[in-house]
Write a structure and sequence with these properties.
The chain is of the alpha/beta class. The protein has a single domain, classed as Vaccinia Virus protein VP39 (Rossmann fold, 3-Layer(aba) Sandwich), CATH 3.40.50.150. It has ten helices and seven strands. A seven-stranded mixed beta sheet has the order 3-2-1-4-5-7-6, sandwiched between helices. Helix 5 links the parallel strand 4 and strand 5. The protein starts with about 20 loop residues before the first helix and ends with a strand.
Length: about 250
């Protein structure tokens, strides 16, 4: 749903309101940051690979929760028989409709209003949970669980890990990273909401210095490093992860 948001979940009144008017500039803002663009690239890599592998004959019904401008929708919807994207921001949805004209997009807050959407085989939720406050996280997972069929997959990310190597070094030098959703807290939230984590793919574990994260030349030649540090064991210290969680 967002690239960067300087307010922490506890400081922000409600993350629902943070991007209502940012649809026109969101994609450009993401692309302008080398590290955000890098995470976007690898999120797209893992999401596409996972969706194709888990549903080799196609996804019957797919929902992109907090779809924003359709960044993830555009990757998964070609693999699905029916696709729906939902977001609270009309400006974001306007961009998404241009990007994915074949997808049905709905302006709604599924955590506060009941919309008859049926059940889905795959739900994605990207750039949302790391920025949201705790009560919104819990409400979102409850609604996602209601909409996902038994055995269906939630594919999501956490791109603002406060215990990543880069965040720990930042704090060690006097910085305030501000975020609170680390790998283990995310696992507890998923478990408490009826999900089992079945896959985790870390992104950017090796990018522990800010100068590395802003160096386009280093980022452009990163494939070998991502493969080298792509094991689940690195996830607790990676700045971004892609997670597959199965509904029990």
């Amino acid at each position: 749903m967002t690239a960067h948001n300087n307010a922490t979940p506890t400081e922000s009144a409600d993350y629902r309101h943070s991007h209502l008017e940012r649809g026109g500039a969101y994609d450009a803002t993401l692309a302008a940051s080398p590290f955000d663009a890098y995470m976007d690239q690898w999120e797209a890599h893992w999401t596409t690979l996972i969706a194709r592998r888990l549903h080799q004959r196609g996804i019957p019904r797919y929902l992109d929760f907090a779809c924003g401008t359709g960044r993830i929708t555009s990757l998964v919807s070609p693999l699905a028989g029916e696709s729906i994207g939902v977001d609270v921001s009309e400006s974001m949805l306007q961009a998404a409709r241009l990007k994915c004209p074949e997808v049905r997009f709905i302006k709604a807050d599924l955590t506060q209003e009941r919309v008859d959407l049926g059940v889905f085989d795959v739900i994605t939720a990207f750039r949302f949970f790391g920025n949201a406050q705790d009560d919104l996280r819990v409400a979102a997972l409850a609604e996602i669980g209601r909409l996902l069929r038994s055995g269906g997959q939630l594919i999501m990310n956490n791109h603002r890990n406060p215990r990543s190597l880069s965040a720990l070094l930042h704090r060690a030098t006097g910085g305030d990273y501000g975020m609170d959703l680390d790998y283990f807290k995310l696992k507890r939230l998923l478990l408490a909401s009826g999900f089992k984590v079945v896959e985790v793919h870390p992104i950017g574990f090796w990018l522990f210095r800010s100068r590395m994260q802003s160096n386009s030349r280093i980022l452009a030649t990163s494939g070998r490093m991502e493969r080298l540090f792509g094991a689940r064991v690195y996830a607790p210290l990676a700045p971004d992860i892609v997670v597959v969680a199965r509904k029990a």
